[in-house]
């Protein structure tokens, strides 16, 4: 089961964009997300919009998918031009999934080439693809590097075979150092994604995973708490008592251990779940994800992908829309010359301010207290007293979480936005 699309207003069949999205666009960076919905197997905890190859055919099949995605990219260029948006070079590209590297590397290169020909790529563009460790070879990575990819994010999840088995991950953890070396030898930046809180995972298991990731020498690590969504296989296993989820104290201990180990190794946190090393004075953060958290513009390509364009016009501060979820319907709509959009919403002033707080609070840089209501500014003082918000930053006019605050980020957001 994949998550339902959000509620919203109907999106126009022709994809027409309101002209107010062009207001202030020249001052906003622009990125592209491309969703590749294929996986070899469906992991029991996953509720992403993914499918195995045997589930799909026609324009949604793996063999035809790149051509279908390119048709949306070309349509996006036309729609943005018609709305009066300035042609901006793309500053970041992120290919996610699914497992994008189940597609032939040359297909991913074709999709990136379409982005380049439609908008152009900034000279310092960051181009990332997600990958499973068992879905790449030195040869496929070279094709990606030659095509302009600059970064690979490997789904390591754990270094412990029993934990990987519970997650139903298929790769051999002993392969991680090899794939990291292959990518770095080609000049690609590498990130490793980890998951903590898997049923049965001990604190020593988690320490092994973090230390194994650090031993590869990567400059970026993401560590996410396992969230078991309703409708997934793992949720059913938990409900039947076959698996037992860890408690909040266990989750907190694992987060603190990761933060300690990563910080000691020279990787500083820049977002609640992300750490990066500073090299030559520049932190190797994922710039594409930072673009989401900072409110930049982006176009999402693929089934279920979301897009966002901001605005400086009062009352219409942004437009968000999302594509139809199923890949077959997505391909069919594009084949008929229709927009794949399923719904959309316009952000008013209050909604935009709420999002600035919800996203900004997750960042190490935080956000300006001026973005808060008078009542919420009063609440900041209480959070400083409770050790959730950094006092010095608050005096300087910014809300920045302490480590304890990171563990209770949802509580802080709730108090500052109610």
Automatic annotation (TrEMBL):
Family: Belongs to the anaerobic coproporphyrinogen-III oxidase family. HemW subfamily.
Keywords: 4Fe-4S, Chaperone, Cytoplasm, Heme, Iron, Iron-sulfur, Metal-binding, S-adenosyl-L-methionine
PANTHER family: COPROPORPHYRINIGEN III OXIDASE (PTHR13932), RADICAL S-ADENOSYL METHIONINE DOMAIN-CONTAINING PROTEIN 1, MITOCHONDRIAL (PTHR13932:SF5)
Protein name: Heme chaperone HemW
Every Radical SAM core domain range: 24-271
GO molecular function: 4 iron, 4 sulfur cluster binding; coproporphyrinogen oxidase activity; metal ion binding
A Pfam family: Radical_SAM
CDD domains linked to this entry: Radical_SAM
Subcellular location(s) per record: Cytoplasm
General function of this protein: Probably acts as a heme chaperone, transferring heme to an unknown acceptor. Binds one molecule of heme per monomer, possibly covalently. Binds 1 [4Fe-4S] cluster. The cluster is coordinated with 3 cysteines and an exchangeable S-adenosyl-L-methionine.
One GO term (biological process): porphyrin-containing compound biosynthetic process
Cellular component GO terms held in the UniProt record: cytoplasm
Highest taxon of the lineage: Bacteria
